[in-house]
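Task: complex structure prediction.
Instruction: return structure tokens for all chains below.
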Amino acid sequence: AFFWLVSLLLSSLIWFIAVKASDPRDEPLQKGLLIFGVMFSVLLQEAFRFLYYKLLRKAIEGLVALSEDGCSPISIQQMAYVAGVGFGLMSGAFSMINLLADALGPGTVGIHGDSQLYFLTSAFMTMVLIFLHTFWGILFFHGCEHRRWWEIVVVVVMHLAVSGSTFCNPLYVGSLVPSYLLMAVAAAWAYILSGGSAQNLRRFLLCKS
Amino acid sequence: MTELSAHLPQFQHGQLTENFPDNHLSNTNDNSERRRHDNSERRRNDNPESETNGQPQNSIQQVVEQDEEDDEELTLKYGAKHVIMLFVPVTLCMVVVVATIKSVSFYTRKDGQLIYTPFTEETETVGQRALNSILNAAIMISVIIVMTILLVVLYKYRCYKVIHGWLIISSLLLLFFFSFIYLGEVFKTYNVAMDYITVALMIWNFGVVGMICIHWKGPLRLQQAYLIMISALMALVFIKYLPEWTAWLILAVISVYDLVAVLCPKGPLRMLVETAQERNETLFPALIYSSTMIWLVNMAEEDPEAQRKASKNSTYDKQAPANQTRNEDAEADDGGFSQEWQQQRDNRIGPIESTPESRAAVQALPSNSQTSEDPEERGVKLGLGDFIFYSVLVGKASATASGDWNTTLACFVAILIGLCLTLLLLAIFKKALPALPISITFGLVFYFATDNLVQPFMDQLAFHQFYI
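Output:
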């Protein structure tokens, strides 16, 4: 969570500087700057995910060196999951919390002609992002572990795609549907990478031991 | 609200960051235990190679190496547990403060200032405002420094009664007066009608149980809860009565002062901790939050005083011989109740000698304190002042930030990460460390950064419904 926060800080710094250096009245330019800010932020988030991976790697090496039986009490997969959840929760919290606070107060959604589904779609979008961050964490760390750089590239591209799809908002079908499809793909991939299989799933669902 | 000198000491003693005597002891005890566990194992493993060297030398070497390895292993393993043990109360305190700030408008209304911050911030020019806040902060910090030095001097010259009286008065003020005001404001906010008799009963009970829990003995969880509550109350007072720029300046200067006072060889807090360690006493329970405390409560007692002394002795040193001198008992007991108190007690109950036999009898009883004396259960201590200043930072962030919840959340995460780092350093350096600097620095950086940089960004994103 902290690492995500720092990446957000740095990307907002960049955006802020860009905005201050430009003309505030030029609408399309501002929107363009915002889009640039978003893309830059995505790249920065992934960079920080990589830095976090490096940090955790060092920590695991330390734990392994000091433990009695040569393996660390936490596996890298668990750390990947936790890292993903941390990123996701922080990102979700920052996206949603002001919305939720405002939702408690009086008001009408979309009174000025905007979409009336604002809160709903925000909630769904945030949820899908949290899930995606979790899965991306697993995929990313797995890619780093096994030196499969294409996995990392796919994660970054997916993140850019999801963020990019939100540029179609308020045409929600353009953002929500692809995001959920991508989430399903990422979920299946992460599940398989973590050692799951169709057999495991069936056994779990049918409650066999 | 002008009369605050009595409780001022309360928070600044809380500057006593990480009290280390017990932690240190806990580490050494752990080591001796683990040494016994692992020694035999390792020796079996290493024996084939050690044929050539002289056996005693090798074993000493082994012990020394194992000592260091065990040390590090332990610190890593139990470090995570200690971190969690401190995260929960710090989080609770902050949650209480933020919840109160958000709902009860009393604490965000400007109703004047403390006498310690006489200069107002409602000035015409920015320069004048800056000057006033610098002066305010300077006055506040000098008051704190003077009080801390006074406390250390009193402690060094064993004026325990004065210190105890001071602490009791300040906790009385906090527990009764401030909680009465708090309750009143909460009722006003939620429009709950309440009569004076019920309120008197509630406050009386709350206060008396609080006094007993904090200064005497009580269930651990209850004591922790009370310490969290008084920290929150104190933080709320600060948030209400400190003007903006003064508050941020004070936070910054206090972390620098904390760093200096705890780490410099002549720093007052360091002297306090070292004196306490020399005399083998714990510091005052009213100023330190401890994640575990070993008290005997609810034991079937024919001999309450002797039992209490025995249990206290057993917490300090499990391997201590049964016959400790009476002087040591007196000093180990609650930071030194004097001979007078013991005479008083003797008059009341009849002369009770904390004899080796009675101690042995007590230690032979199956007691719940033995289970909680596992090496793993030894806890970490954090000064109440740290709680208070963390909560002040987060509370001010939630009260006055334009980014509102985002800023609050960012400061919260920053403080927790700072606390993590501090505990990591504590595990590495193994001596009392200031808990304020790292967390407050992170908190301040994140507050100003989030409020000014992130908030416009997130605002624009939310407006267009872009997601990053």
